[in-house]
Design goal:
The protein has strands spanning 2-3, 12-14, 57-61, 67-72, 74-81, 93-98, 118-122. The protein is an all-beta fold. Among the domains are: 1-28 and 116-123, no CATH class; 57-102, no CATH class.
Length: 123
């Protein structure tokens, strides 16, 4: 049970992997599916690794190979080279950047919105 305090109440122990408790420190708890069909195949106490939503974008080109438009996570870096293009004909090359923060919130970890509480279990 989550508590809004730094230590467990009397008769409770922290869910920290000791005293027969699961280690819930720094973890997000997800309710057991129990046949609902949202998170199939999970067992009580099982854990999942992290994952993020798919991030997509489009780079549009013209017939000559010139970059025409950048959408989603892609962007024009501004770097251009008038050297050799595709095939044997000379052409203009553009560097294309990819930055997920252009389309989704980013951090140094994957996480849902959250509030930190202390998880305790009855002794």
């Amino acid at each position: 049970m989550p508590f809004y305090q730094y230590s467990c109440p009397e008769g409770w122990v922290a869910a920290n992997g000791q005293n027969g408790t699961p280690d819930l420190r720094g973890e997000f708890i997800r309710g057991l599916d129990s046949g609902r069909g949202v998170d199939n195949g999970r067992g009580l106490g099982s854990s999942q690794g992290d994952a993020i939503r798919n991030i997509t974008g489009i780079v549009s080109t013209r017939g000559s190979g010139n970059m025409d438009g950048f959408f989603g996570a892609f962007y024009d870096t501004g770097t251009r080279d008038g050297g050799v293009g595709r095939g044997s004909s000379p052409g203009l090359t553009d560097d294309i950047g990819f930055d997920a923060s252009r389309v989704v919130p980013t951090a140094n970890e994957n996480r849902p919105r959250n509030v930190a509480l202390l998880y305790c279990m009855k002794q």
